[in-house]
Design a protein that fits this description.
Layout lengths: L7 H72 L5 H24 L12 H8 L5 H17 L10 H78 L9 H18 L4 E7 L2 H8 L1 H18 L5 E6 L2 E6 L4 H16 L2 E2 L6 E2 L2 E7 L6 H18 L5 E2 L1 H5 L1
Parallel strand pairs: 6-7
Antiparallel strand pairs: 1-3, 1-6, 2-3, 4-5
Helix pairs in contact: 1-2, 1-4, 1-5, 2-4, 3-5, 4-5, 7-8, 8-9
């Protein structure tokens, strides 16, 4: 299979690789998306836990303040005359109701305040243990406060049992109960936060590992493939698709640079112009596929005769040119003669049997006085036409042209 033909197996392999890369890329994106969603959930849970701690602390502090206010109001109620009781009763009732509402929010939960309704076994024990739980403490405290309001005037003294119970609660028992609840909740929520943070670290490692794997196993191979494909495209842009040698654009670009180098340094470089003889007849008689094979045979013959530093280009149709670096005219003519004799011996298979073809050659040296490389090629073409007119299958150089 020639270099210009597309390899079907390679195309199928390339297609499979594209599908594999696409699946791997989508999978990595899905993995990152899932990790991102889980990370968002964990961050939300951590924020919720932190807000719960703050809400519990705020509620705890508010309950302490309420208990102290209720205690002071109850003492004022006992010590003040009846004329001031209506305002004190109203204030006490408001504070008692607020304490009960706060306690209900603490025990049953309140989403608006950020307080959860479900509690751990330890928190439930601190809340609802018979006699020692915070729930009983609050009920006794508010009952004692209500009892003071309802106490007959003759029993309204500072050593009233209900007032003494309020005093003890605000100085120790109730405060201790509130502190115990808050401490336990902080401990449990702190563990949740720490667990969430650890999980976030793990997820971060997963994300970084996924990104690293994506880079190593997807983007790096893709990058290499892109470089390879760019190289292929670059070579295709410079290569004749039929023969694999340089196309006109690539050859002329190189030949122009070589012309400039010769002008600067005075080196001896020659150009060979080549044209297959009676090529139209070959196409008309045997068909274009045979004509294409004849062209490829000429290129193969040329490449075996020239050096790797020399350049062969297809200028169009059956016309070719060679730039021989650091070569004088005599040696260039020898190279052309070697190609000519080798090519006329090459057989090309056809349906009617094998055929042989010939080519004509024009050889010239790059001169500083030339009008660029185009001027040199025009002179080589003149010698080529001389070879054609003199019977074809010949090599004509300056010496032969002046003979």
């Amino acid at each position: 299979m020639d270099s210009y033909e597309i390899d079907a197996d390679y195309e199928r392999s390339l297609g499979r690789r594209r599908i594999k890369y696409r699946i791997a890329y989508i999978s990595s994106l899905l993995a990152i998306a899932i990790v991102s969603i889980v990370s968002f959930y964990l961050v939300s849970q951590i924020n919720l836990a932190q807000k719960t701690i703050a809400s519990n602390a705020n509620m705890n502090a508010e309950q302490k303040v309420l208990s102290q206010r209720i205690h002071r109001l109850a003492e004022n109620f006992v010590e003040t005359p009846d004329s001031e009781h209506p305002l004190l009763i109203k204030s006490l009732s408001v504070h008692i109701k607020k304490m009960q509402e706060n306690h209900q929010a603490l025990t049953q939960g309140n989403p608006e305040l950020g307080l959860p309704g479900d509690h751990s076994e330890k928190v439930n024990a601190l809340l609802f243990s018979k006699g020692t739980g915070l729930d009983d403490m609050i009920q006794r405290f508010t009952t004692n406060a209500v009892n003071i309001i309802e106490t007959p005037s003759e029993f309204r003294t500072l050593d009233n049992p209900n007032l003494v119970a309020l005093r003890v609660a605000t100085s120790s028992t109730l405060l201790d109960g509130l502190d115990a609840i808050l401490t336990q909740q902080k401990l449990e929520l702190g563990k949740q936060i720490e667990k969430g943070r650890n999980q976030l670290i793990i997820l971060l490692v997963v994300v970084l590992s996924t990104l690293a794997a994506t880079g190593v196993f997807i983007f790096n191979p893709l990058y290499k493939k892109i470089i390879e494909q760019n190289q292929v495209l670059f070579e295709l842009a410079l290569t004749d698709p039929l023969t694999g040698c340089q196309n006109r654009r690539s050859f002329m670009e190189f030949a122009s640079k070589e012309f400039d180098r010769v002008v600067r340094h005075g080196n001896s470089t020659c150009v060979i112009s080549i044209d297959i003889d009676t090529f139209k007849t070959v196409n008309d008689t045997y068909g274009h596929p045979v004509g294409d094979e004849v062209i490829r045979n000429l290129v193969r013959t040329c490449l075996t005769a020239i050096r790797s530093s020399d350049h062969l280009g297809r200028l169009g149709g059956e016309e070719f040119a060679i730039v021989l670096i650091e070569t004088d005219v005599q040696n260039a003519v020898s190279v052309a003669e070697k190609i000519r004799s080798a090519f006329e011996a090459v057989e090309t298979t056809t349906k009617q049997g094998p055929i042989k073809c010939t080519a004509s050659f024009g050889v010239t040296k790059i001169e500083k006085a030339d009008d660029g490389i185009q001027g040199t090629l025009e002179r080589a073409d003149e010698y080529l036409y001389m070879a054609k007119k003199s019977g074809r299958n010949k090599v004509v150089g300056p010496q032969e042209a002046n003979a």
